[in-house]
Write a structure and sequence with these properties.
about 450 residues; Immunoglobulin-like; alpha+beta; Sulfite Oxidase, Chain A, domain 2; globular; about 25% strand; 5-stranded antiparallel sheet; binds molybdenum atom; 25 strands
Amino acid sequence: MTSYSSEPSGRVLKAPEHFLSQEGIKTVVAESKKGRRDFLRNAFATAAAGAAAPIALAQSNPVPAEGGDPNILNLPTHSTSLGQSVATVGYGVPSQYEANLQRRPSPGLTQTTQASVSFAPLQSLFGIVTPSGLHFERHHQGWWDIDPSKHRFMINGMVKTPMVFTMDELMRLPSVSRFHFIECGANTAVDWGNVAVPTVQYTHGMLSCSEFTGVPLIALLELAGVDLKKAKFVLAEGADGSSMTRTIPMDLITSGEVIVAYGMNGEMLRPENGYPLRLVVPGVQGVSWVKYLRRIKVGDKPWGAKDEAIHYIDLMPDGTHRQYSNLQECKSVVTTPSGGQVLLDKGFYNITGLAWSGLGKIKRVDVSVDGGRNWRQARLESPVLSKCLTRFNIDWVWDGKPAIIQSRAQDETGYVQPTYQQLRAVRGTRSIYHNNAIQSWLVQEDGEVKNVQLG
Ligand SMILES: Nc1nc2c(c(=O)[nH]1)N[C@H]1C(S)=C(S)[C@@H](COP(=O)(O)O)O[C@H]1N2
Ligand SMILES: [Mo]
């Protein structure tokens, strides 16, 4: 909820992404009461004009008898003179007023010289698609901008004819385009340890959603003459220096869902996200979505590669490790109001957020504003797609008292997102990966929103 105050003083209430600078986290300075009223008048001016605006808002914004907003009384220059010509830039960029909308490395995470994670600013995004330039990044050894004319993709192992494809050859084949979320298995990891990172960008921002275009992997394996009676797994390998390889079970591939993708949101993949080729493994944790994809090796058992043996495993309460916990279970989070944001006054707010499941479609999302005692069913916005982010919205009138906002998602398999208590009962307290617990945001009396965990 970025606020665009049009006050003559130029005072702008800053959304959370503005708070986090290189130096760390700055304190939010509360607006004066007058500032709040002016903000509300300005903010609701637009809302009240729309037919769908709640009655309460329309009534709270009568046209003043005298004075009035100079921004509507005076014609601005852009209404009275000639605008800019086309083609000042061949590839469009966001408005100068959106300069603070950025993916960011976490100030709390150790980064190598090549920062290894940048988080998507979920608090400021609408709908379900993550703009490509704001897609989160996770690099095990930095990113590359690989020359597509030199990039090769190989299929070998248990196939009749090992094959090598150029990008041109791949792009001549029949393609599919599908919307899917990608979530790093380590998303929300620090919250296992009850470390309350301040904003949803850092609690849940290793999550993005795009339309991916490419060739189903099964079609390529069939070209190479795969014997599906023998072949049970593939190993995916990237062309960067991280030696990151992942085993993928064949049943995910035969379903036709796994894509060897070159397209993302209508254009070629961005270099940070694996240009010119990456694997899309719907529902599965991000690490298996191998970027700079150069090889698929077909085999009959899991490889137990380093990123499967010592990373991306879950320490269970009995001291054993759970391996190959691929599918991302049902999860959701309220993105507004969320940590670091400030509610300017009591009254109407739209609560909005995202829900997703690696096992299929989202069936239902409930929202609580009293820490889980009472729940109301949120509205799911269309489209509701399988293994894709789903946007939910619900009305809320804040009475100005402390409130704890939570969302709880359920997927089409009937699985319900757990509380921290329920998750820890099964998974213990020493995990890093695969935290899909219900997130709680505390709205304080002064309007500030904080990340809290309920026991
Ligand atoms: N080749 C290669 N593929 C990779 C990685 C990598 O470092 N190198 N990181 C993996 C991890 S851990 C994640 S979460 C996703 C992140 O994808 P993104 O950077 O497009 O968000 O890519 C995966 N694929
Ligand atoms: Mo990851």
